[in-house]
Specification:
Radius of gyration: 20 Å
Number of strands: 10
Distance between the termini: 43 Å
Low-confidence stretches: 113-124
Number of domains: 2
Helix content: 10-25%
Structural class: alpha+beta
Largest sheet: 4 strands, antiparallel
Strand content: 25-35%
């Protein structure tokens, strides 16, 4: 079963256990939120279309993390007027995991999903650039693709590795530099492997 939902002015095709990045939603990591604007439901061969919304349908999701998208630059110049203006913007985003698709007016489970292992309080921030081999350029591309946390990298499958290796032209760096293993170490609370990142950790950055 999958559904098409609308949130933040955009539409998303979602199924259980999918992780998607949406416009920021209120809540803390671990909270369960409900998207009630369901435009379509597909269960096997049966499809239900909303007019505009499917009555009694909703989608429940768990908030994984909050972040910001890549910077967008708006530059305006008026010819021969000695006038120009430059503005930057980074959109607030939220990464969520779809937990269940509800029909018939059913309510989302009040019980929160079990929290995933995370770095201890006071540790360095959950930044993918602390994984050895991921610099600012690759980090920016990963974040633009919705990869913002160590847990996401730690959960990569062989298919995910092949996908990002091809999309980012990494030529096997993910496996050669053990990104997944490094991410699992960071999730478990171990310090980064690189010395420069260990210095960041010591400073609490």
């Amino acid at each position: 079963m999958f559904a098409v939902i609308k949130t933040g002015g955009k539409q998303y095709r979602v199924a259980a256990e999918d992780q998607i990045t949406v416009m920021t939603v209120a809540g803390e990591p671990g909270d369960v939120v409900t998207f009630s604007d369901v435009l379509m439901l597909v269960d096997g061969e049966a499809a239900t279309f909303g007019a505009p919304l499917v009555a009694g349908a909703s989608v429940a999701a768990e908030i994984l993390s909050h972040g910001r998208g890549p910077k967008a630059i708006s530059f305006k110049k008026r010819r021969r007027q000695n006038s120009k203006r430059k503005r930057g913007h980074r959109q607030d985003l939220t990464l969520v995991r779809i937990t269940e698709i509800l029909t018939g007016g059913a309510k989302a489970s009040a019980k929160k999903a079990a929290p995933v292992a995370a770095a201890p309080a006071g540790a360095i921030s959950d930044d993918v650039e602390l994984i050895g081999g991921i610099g600012p350029t690759i980090g920016k591309k990963l974040k633009a693709a919705g990869v913002t946390t160590w847990r996401q990298v730690a959960d990569w499958t062989e298919a995910d590795i092949a996908k990002f290796d091809a999309e980012l032209n990494l030529r096997g760096r993910i496996q050669r530099e053990e990104w997944v293993e490094q991410a699992k170490e960071l999730v478990a609370g171990k310090p980064p492997r690189a010395k420069v990142d260990q210095e960041r950790a010591a400073k609490g950055e």
